[in-house]
Every structure is written in structure tokens, then in C-alpha cells.
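C-alpha cells incoming
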């Protein structure tokens, strides 16, 4: 025997029952579970932020301290200023730090340490390089020239003499990088390497003020001795005037 039709509640459409139950649930839930005061809400937010700020090392648990791996050392051979030097360096050592800290050639300066000021410029295999941006182990057997290798006190490199003549050194901090870069710039032009301002890419670039300014733009001088530096480079290049 069927009991269909005996209960009015059972005869209501299912959609209507679901809507009614959903409305009842939302009403009860809102009243009971979202009864947070402003103070409680602030406390909960602060606790969440503190949890997120816990370092991964702390998250390892009690007694599990993070361990820094030992540096990996590699042998390195460089020919620096004409002399072969044997080193053993941390693989993370930059060429700049290898020159200054390992070989004590402090003429190369650490300026911004981000490759933006050019104070650390040295000449590697005939090309100028920001030594702070390259790892020493990347230059196995390379020929490196620093400011100490260009000239001596008794016999200055022509570019060093020109910087003194035209007062291009001023405070002197950027000068080693400026001089190394200047020497390499004239070598680049002599080798026919174009720059962004070279108009004729198939002919030999000329030593013009625009060419020198463009090629030296990676070397920053806080003293503002740019006109003197340009005059010194032009002097060495052959007496061109800016």
C-alpha cells in the first residue's frame, strides 16, 4: 500500500525544500559562527601574520637547525699582469674578489658591486669586463690586466699619463676602471668593433667624441670629470679635440 499523498510535506517539490533548508542554514550559521568582535578579528590577523613570518629553518622543528653547506673550492690558474698565479678559490668568488682578496691587487675598486658603475673594470683576454659580475672560476687560464699591469710609477702607461695631464682622475676612486676601460675602448675601435652610435657598420669606426662617450658610458664618475677624461682619451688616440 502506497502512502503517497498522506503527508503534505512529502508532496512539496524538491527545489522548494532545498531553498528553504539553505536559507535556514545561512541564517543559523551567520548568527552563531560569525559573531566575532573587532578585537578578536585583529588578534586572529596578527596570529596569521606571525605564522607566515616564521622562517623555513624554524619550521624544521626543534633540534633541526639549518646547515650551510661547506664552500666548494677549486684550483684556478690566471695570468695576471703577465705573471701566472695559482689560486684555490670558493666557486662563488667573483673575479673582483679574487683579484683584491686573494691576490691583493687592490687597484681594482669595488664600487656598486652590481656592474653599474664600472669601477671594477679590468681587461680579460683583450676585452674589458666588469669583474664584479663574473665568477673567477669562469676564467681558467685567462689573461687578466689590472691597473697595476698597465704601467709603473717610473713608467706610466700613456693613458695614465694623459689622465694626470688633463686632470681626469680627480678623487681617483673610479680612475683605475676608467683607465682600463679607456685603453680597451681604443683597442675596440682599432679592431673595427662598432658601437651603438657607429653609423657605418661596414667601415672602420672613427675615434670621435661621440664614439668615446658612448663606449665609456658604463663608467661612472661622481666627480664629474667626464670632459677631462674625454680629453685624455682623445690625447692618447691622436690629438683629436672634443
Amino acid at each position: 500500500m502506497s502512502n503517497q499523498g498522506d503527508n503534505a510535506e512529502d508532496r512539496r517539490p524538491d527545489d522548494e525544500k532545498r531553498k528553504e533548508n539553505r536559507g535556514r542554514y545561512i541564517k543559523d550559521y551567520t548568527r552563531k559562527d560569525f559573531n566575532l568582535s573587532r578585537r578578536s578579528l585583529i588578534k586572529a590577523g596578527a596570529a596569521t601574520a606571525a605564522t607566515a613570518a616564521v622562517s623555513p629553518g624554524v619550521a624544521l622543528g626543534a633540534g633541526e637547525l639549518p646547515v650551510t653547506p661547506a664552500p666548494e673550492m677549486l684550483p684556478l690558474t690566471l695570468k695576471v699582469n703577465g705573471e701566472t698565479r695559482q689560486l684555490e678559490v670558493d666557486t662563488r668568488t667573483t673575479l673582483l674578489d679574487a683579484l683584491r682578496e686573494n691576490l691583493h691587487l687592490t687597484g681594482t675598486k669595488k664600487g656598486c658591486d652590481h656592474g653599474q658603475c664600472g669601477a671594477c673594470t679590468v681587461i680579460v683576454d683583450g676585452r674589458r669586463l666588469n669583474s664584479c659580475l663574473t665568477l673567477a672560476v669562469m676564467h681558467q687560464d685567462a689573461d687578466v690586466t689590472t691597473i697595476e699591469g698597465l704601467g709603473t710609477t717610473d713608467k706610466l702607461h700613456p693613458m695614465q699619463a694623459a689622465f694626470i695631464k688633463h686632470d681626469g682622475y680627480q678623487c681617483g676612486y673610479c680612475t683605475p676602471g676608467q683607465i682600463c676601460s679607456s685603453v680597451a675602448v681604443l683597442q675596440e675601435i682599432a679592431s673595427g668593433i662598432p658601437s651603438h652610435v657607429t653609423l657605418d657598420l661596414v667601415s672602420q669606426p672613427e675615434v670621435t667624441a661621440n664614439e668615446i662617450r658612448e663606449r665609456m658610458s658604463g663608467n661612472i664618475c661622481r666627480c664629474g670629470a667626464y670632459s677631462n677624461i674625454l680629453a685624455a682619451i682623445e690625447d692618447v688616440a691622436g690629438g683629436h679635440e672634443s
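note: The two ends are 113 Å apart (CA to CA).
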